Amino acid sequence: MVESYNEMASITGATRSHYRRFDDWLKCQTEDVLHHKRAEADLAFRRVGITFAVYGNEAGTERLIPFDLIPRIIPAHEWHTLQTGLRQRVEALNKFIHDVYHDQNILRAGVIPADQVLKNAQYRPEMQGVDVPGDIYSHIAGVDVVRAGTGDDGVFYVLEDNLRVPSGVSYMLENRKMMMRLFPELFARNRIAPVEHYPDLLLDSLRAVAPIGVDDPTVVVMTPGIYNSAYFEHAFLAQQMGIELVEGQDLFVEDNLVYMRTTNGPKRVDVIYRRIDDDFLDPLAFRADSTLGVPGLLSVYRAGRVTLANAIGTGVADDKSIYPFVPDMIEFYLGEKPILNNVPTYQCRRPDDLAYTLDNLGELVVKEVHGAGGYGMLIGPASTKAEIEAFRQRLIAKPDGYIAQPTLALSACPTFVEAGIAPRHIDLRPFVLSSGKGVTMVPGGLTRVALTEGSLVVNSSQGGGTKDTWVLEK
User: What does DSSP assign to residue 334?
Assistant: First the structure.
């Protein structure tokens, strides 16, 4: 069996050129030193409170996301290709969302079946005809990218687009801070592109999409509260941007404006970076039982007197049933060929694709179209016959709820595990910011690593860890 692409070493075992300086340093480190440094990192993360809530975990809901000491390194030319492809993709996705809620040209042209969009659970008819600043709907996108292939033939693919409330950027920032603290000498030896300015870029992007006529906008981060799995990130980003962290109960609507309760009285809010799903934003418009949202928020939003980032209804573009059509969107809206490829995808709503999937369940990865976090999926090669047969019945009962993809040989990166340094599979989530001023991002993103040997599931909720991501400057 040919091994998957190794980020650090070629098929002959030679260290790839962009890893050579790091490899020279690593060879001088003992396992005792690395164990000590990892313990130091764990202690620091625990003191700061960098935890992740795992719902349904009997051992306790709060835990550290394991941090690996060995970075994922990307050379400048590879990052240039990734960055260009991500900008292209997010630009097309924003145009698609605008089109869906306005003229629906892509549906009229038959590029995407209308029913697949208009009957999608993430389509929000309340957004039809609503104009948003700069026609930007997904202000913050987390696009999951993998390198797949064998030997020295590794190709980048987009695995999924996260356009609603993508998380993980705080771990990207804290991982960099931790590596600089533990190994300052590495940053003297290597020209590593900075990421610490991300909060400034984010705040600039949010301020740039303020309602028309607002020159000095008040921006807030809106959180569901301390029990949310990403609460640390909500608080972290608010603190880094120097803005208020609020819950729904801290806001109210009056005279078709949104206000924040403060010790000095009500203060108008112009831009809300919301980390709450659509359903819970406004109990008058969506779920009446929501205690997390702000009654009347939708009416203010529709009137253009407050900006929500990301916009209501962005989920219609990151649903896994829409994912296969993103390359078509790029050609339709931009007149360009996609720079980054999709993973080949079988749409189980199609009879032929369903038949193929059912015949090959043991070799495929099957995902719920609304699933997230590694839940609701089948990894055929890693599943028992009983698990495959149970999943087969779910698939037959609701084929339009699933897509299937070949099991990719995800690239591997050396990782410091209990047995020493060993390859583990990884992905990458760059964070792409959009505003009326254009599309920007910091070099790199969050590298997630499947810590279990042979596992392809990198999600933090499924026991994955994280690494610092270095993009080398020329």
Answer: I
C-alpha span between 178 and 171 (Å, rounded): 10
Judge whether 437 and 175 are in contact, CB under 8 Å: no
- pLDDT tens figures, 173-229: 999 999 999 999 999 999 999 999 999 999 999 999 999 999 999 999 999 999 888
Determine if the peptide bond prior to 310 is cis (ω within 30°): yes
Give the Cα-Cα-Cα angle 278, 283, 287 (nearest 5 degrees): 60
Between CA 269 and CA 210 the distance in angstroms is 10
Q: Which residues of the chain fall short of a pLDDT of 70? A: 1-2, 51-63, 371-375, 460-463
Cβ–Cβ under 8 Å, residues 76 and 473:
yes
Amino acid found at 257? L
Q: Residue 470 phi/psi, 5° resolution?
A: -105, 125
Domain count, the chain: 3
Which domain range does residue 71 map to? Answer: 17-211+306-340+408-471
Q: Within this chain, do residues 272 and 375 fall inside the same structural domain, yes or no?
A: no
pTM for the whole structure:
0.93
| C-alpha–C-alpha distance, residues 161 and 143, integer Å | 5
Six-digit token pair at 135? Answer: 């026609």
Closest C-alpha among 268, 266, 249, 253 to residue 300: 253
